[in-house]
Amino acid sequence: MKLNDLKKESPAILIAEDDPDDRFLIEQAFQEVNLSNKVYFVEDGEELLDYLLWRSKYADMKPSRPKCLLLDLKMPRMGGREALREIRQDPDLADLTVVVLSTSNSDNDRGYCKKFGVHEYMTKPDSFIKLLELADRIKKICT
User: What is the mean pLDDT of the chain?
Assistant: First the structure.
């Protein structure tokens, strides 16, 4: 979706993912499981907060809040952990459904995310077949 389209349609799912290959695979998996919701990508935690708080390039557009956020924890500039903390501290965003999709399987990351009310924590799969299974779970959570 192009940035200018945000004025016309609001995405149902916002995905914060810095890796272009992962973005492509997620998008392909969503198409395979027939996810009909609009999807919009941001590339790091700062852009994520800019989008959600209508700052920077999103200030004049004021896009609608997404129904669901798919969040990577390890991103440049501002990581997902920091962005999650800020989201949960904002009363307007505190009830946003957040699903973490991360390469990390550490108990520390899982505990942190649980503390900040993540709906579900998913580890990035090592095959497209497993990604399709996760995409189907995400579809059920976010639609």
Answer: 89
